[in-house]
Specification:
The structure holds two protein chains of two kinds. Chain A has six helices and 13 strands. By secondary structure, chain A is an alpha+beta fold. Chain A has two domains: 2-69, no CATH class; 79-304, Clam (outer membrane lipoprotein receptor (LolB), chain A). In chain A, a hairpin with a 2-residue loop joins strand 6 (162-169) and strand 7 (172-175). The termini of chain A are far apart. Chain B has a single domain (29-147), classed as Immunoglobulin-like, CATH 2.60.40. In chain B, strands 4, 5, 6, 8, 9 and 10 form a six-stranded antiparallel β-sheet that branches. A four-stranded antiparallel β-sheet of chain B has the order 1-2-3-7, with no helix packed on it. The chains are: A alpha+beta, B mainly beta. At the A-B interface, helix 1, strand 2, strand 3, strand 4 and strand 5 of A face helix 1, strand 2, strand 3, strand 4 and strand 5 of B.
């Protein structure tokens, strides 16, 4: 009897504090008149074109107490064993590879080639178009814990001309090209461009993982796929057609674990599969010092 | 002193749940103008969140509360959402201004794809809100950014 009382008390307390937390969420978002709801409301919206209100959106706005999407992630059930096995395989592979590349403090140099396919390009605040295809070159200065405490990053056109230059120094990010700066914190660079971190969250996002052994440019590669299915067609900025599903594919060398290729694929409402981005790692080297002219960017300041 | 493991398990669960909820609140950026035009509280809100491995969302919202009141003009003069990788802007979507007249709430959500990034990858929602009622005008600039 006494055990039951204690259990009951603890569960009640959990519910109480949880409800208080929820109440804070509602209060912060103007809950009396603007009821916050889960993200699920967001994904059932009709596709929204840039600068347009969808009919669902417009109808929603007509009601004073309309539900409003907020940043509350979805709840999911337990991951299945096969999904967990694949997730762990990705983590193990990337950790093994990262361990062989990084060794203590020093400079990490990463160059990747990004080839994107979009229907519309965006522009920098200075009016310059952001190229769909570009070379990303980044120098990370790592401390003893492997965290980047200084960064020099370039976006270059495919012919090598700088499009943007940014730096991280003294916990401040500076985009030297557009003249903006903001605060940041040291972080651990991800040699796999964030794929394993995404895979770790796949379950919570409702994404499905799969694994295949393939041959890529004559090498045996492990291809991991993360697939998202959308409940209703989703219109993303820069694309003319709504999307019904998407995949993110990472190819790793089966022996070394090195990233060989990243692909993003969208499946549009008409059933067509479109590779919207390919990322080829060009250089991943540890221990090389940046040239003096690159290091000099760290000292540049912006006014904004 | 309570020595029941289940009790402390419950307490830990409660704290975790509370912290989780409050963490989500902190993803917002809001600013408000109490007693705007002497009739309501005007609230400007920006938010950013990850949907899944494919996309992330940016939100802008202008509304009135305490009490909810239709006002002359409500919305924003401009709104932009962008993603940055290591300080470099990958996409920068500039949206036109948008307002409603005689309304209490106006919002929009932009959807952008997530790009592979080996470092600090962040989503931004930024812009100037627009509230007008009679002779009263309030146009606050507000931005927020989150790791995406």
């Amino acid at each position: 009897m006494r055990k039951k009382s204690v259990l009951l008390a603890s569960v009640s307390l959990a519910l109480l504090v949880g409800l208080v937390g929820t109440a804070v969420v509602w209060a912060q978002s103007g809950a009396e008149e603007n009821h916050a709801v889960s993200w699920v409301r967001q994904v059932v919206l009709e596709p929204i074109r840039p600068g347009e209100q969808s009919s669902a959106n417009a109808a929603q706005q007509a009601a004073v107490d309309a539900p409003i999407p907020v940043s509350v992630p979805p709840g999911r059930s337990e991951a299945t064993d096969d999904q967990e096995t694949i997730r762990q395989a990705i983590q193990t592979l990337v950790a093994q590879w990262s361990g062989t590349v990084r060794q203590g403090s020093g400079w990490l140099h990463m160059v990747t080639h990004h080839m994107r396919d979009k229907d519309r390009v965006s522009s920098l605040p200075n009016g310059q178009a952001i190229p769909l295809n570009y070379i990303s070159e980044t120098w990370y200065h790592l401390n003893d814990q492997g965290q980047a405490v200084e960064v020099i990053a370039f976006m270059r056109s495919e012919d090598g001309e700088p499009v943007q230059i940014s730096t991280f120094r003294g916990n401040i990010w500076r985009n030297l090209t557009v003249g903006e700066k903001w605060g940041g914190e040291p972080f651990t660079p991800r040699l796999d461009l964030g794929f394993s971190a995404d895979a770790a969250q796949a379950h919570g996002w409702g994404s499905t993982l799969s694994q295949q052994t393939v041959t890529l440019a004559g090498r045996t590669a492990l291809r991991f796929t993360m697939r998202d299915e959308f409940g209703s067609p989703l219109l993303m900025e820069g694309y003319a057609q709504p999307v019904i599903s998407a995949e993110r594919r990472a190819y790793f060398d089966a022996r070394s674990g090195a990233l060989l290729l990243l692909e993003r694929v969208l499946v549009t409402a008409d059933g067509k599969e479109r590779v919207v981005e390919r990322v080829d790692p060009i250089t991943i080297e540890y221990g090389a010092e940046p040239p003096a002219e690159v290091l000099a960017f760290l000292q540049q300041e912006v006014t904004k | 002193m309570i020595r029941r493991p289940k009790f402390w398990l419950g307490v830990a669960l409660a704290i975790a749940l509370g912290v989780y909820q409050v963490h989500n609140v902190l993803a917002y950026a809001t600013t408000s103008y109490p007693n705007f035009a002497g009739v309501t509280t005007a609230v400007a809100l920006k938010d950013v969140w990850v949907v899944n491995s494919t996309s992330w969302d940016a939100k802008v919202q202008s509304y009135t509360t305490n009490p909810v009141r239709n006002i002359g003009t409500i919305g924003w003069t401009w709104w932009t959402f962008r993603d940055t990788c290591n300080g470099v802007i990958i996409d920068n979507w500039v949206q036109p201004g948008s307002v409603r007249y005689g309304a209490s709430n106006h919002w929009d959500v932009g959807v952008d794809d997530r790009d592979p990034c080996g470092g600090s990858y962040r989503g931004w929602s930024m812009g100037t809100h627009d509230f007008k009622e009679g002779d009263s005008i309030w146009r606050p600039y507000l931005e927020t950014d989150e790791g995406i």
